[in-house]
Amino acid sequence: MSSESRTETVPDRLIVQDASSGAGEARNDTSSQANESTPEINGLPGRNAAAGGGLLLLGVALAAANMRPAVTSLSSILGGVRDALGASTVWAGALTSVPTLCFGAAGIAAPLLARRWGMRSVVGVALGVLTAAMLLRVVGGAITVLAGTVVACAAIAMCNVLIPVVVKESFPGRVGMATGLYTTAMAAGGSVGSAFTPWLRAELGGWRLALATWAVLALAAFVVWNSAGSGGAPEPGGEARQRAESTAEGSSLLRSPLAWAVTGYFAMQSLVAYVVMGWLPEVFKSAGASAGTAGALLGLVLLVGVPISMVLPPLVTRTRGQSVWTVCLAATAISGFLGLLFAPMSAPLLWALLIGVGMSAFPLALVLISLRTSSAAETGKLSGMAQSIGYLIASTGPFLFGMLHDVTSSWSVSLVVLTGVLTVQAVLGAFAGRPRTV
To answer: What is the DSSP letter of 234?
Structure first.
């Protein structure tokens, strides 16, 4: 359903009117009248709307900051945890594959739960579950750690799918800014979780307290999110309208080529990201870098994404289409991997920088989910489709990348295949970036 939109400002409300449909105009006129007749926005009095919006924005940032530490904090000390528990390498391998599998599976359920209870309520409950899971997983043995991590990642998956929808509905005129804040906080949370957990283990005298510390961040997000009204009654014309629109617009996105292009783009960039996070240090070490240098280069790759995540979403939302952005980011990553393939130690910092810039396709993928839809209901459906299918596809990447190395005893074939994945990403991104909606 493709449409062009115009925006009118009315008291305490931003109404987006569909210029291509008389029915859409009637629906928005009804929403406008409802908004003028009620003093509440998102369950908060009208005079506190600005403060409520600011609190919700803080909740978005804190929730995003929790989307990675549950994973990166454990992976940064995984060897020590495995030795302390006497666990097997199979157990460690299961832990590394849990995140993407959970992101895919739980992402399917998120839109269904949101239609039943409201997306903000589901996110609020998910943050509470995340807090509890991060505490409970450190009180037992290997099975408890694995089970707690599964539950934590399932809660994260719910937030991954629904928070972009909250951004679309709550900040319709500031999608780029809010998405930039979300992705920046996510990147920073992942980096901090990885960098500080080994230090916390040393300072606190063990891995259990070190991992449990990150539950404090999850608790803060839970408190702020619910204080912003996530547990309150649905806004008149807000989430209730979203559920009504979801029923009215019940056609499956599985028949939309554009939805598949966005999903494919999300899948390819996620696959590349998880390959990089899992294997890049090993590639550099095989080329002659020390373990410390290889780890620092991965840290540089992740660190580059923090400032880019802050500025990229607002920039791309100001352009009519995003195809050029998607192609340029993929080409930048390809340049880094080709340098790593043919001259790995001639300019390792440059290759790491290029790869880090190219991995900034993640915030762009989230922006595309919002820009390629015309309502919050459609955003929810596309977000669920892209993230559930995308993460399931991405979960195969690290396994196949390592398997090709085992078969060929070299990283060359693996890197060539990865550049092929990036080429597919560029083609899909060029299609997904065209200015239209599903």
So the answer is: P
Please state, in angstroms and rounded to a whole number, the distance separating the CA atoms of residues 279 and 399.
10
What are 30's two structure tokens? 């009804």
Tokens of 249: 């617009």
Give the Å distances, CA to CA, from 72 to 83, 288, 391: 18, 25, 17
Inter-CA distances, 30 with 1, 23, 85, 171, Å: 21, 11, 60, 20
DSSP codes, 311-358: HHHHHHTTSS--HHHHHHHHHHHHHHHHHHHH-TTTSHHHHHHHHHHH
**Total Cβ atoms within 10 A of residue 377:** 26
Going by C-alpha positions, the residue among 128, 127, 118 that lies closest to residue 159 is 127
User: For tokens 């280069």, what's the residue?
Assistant: 297
φ/ψ of 380, rounded to 5, equals -60, -45
Q: Mean pLDDT across the chain, nearest whole number?
A: 80
Q: Could you give the CA distance from residue 286 to residue 284 in angstroms, rounded to a whole number? A: 5
Global confidence as pTM: 0.70
Exposure of 109 by Cβ count < 10 A (0-12 exposed, 13-18 middle, 19+ buried)? middle
Could you tell me the CA-to-CA distances from 319 to 288, 336, 430 in Å, in that order? Answer: 43, 26, 14
Q: 142-185 pLDDT, tens per residue?
A: 999 999 998 998 899 889 888 888 887 888 778 778 888 888 88
CA distances from 328 to 44, 291, 418 (A): 43, 31, 16
Find the helix packing angle between 49-65 and 175-204, rounded to 10°: 50
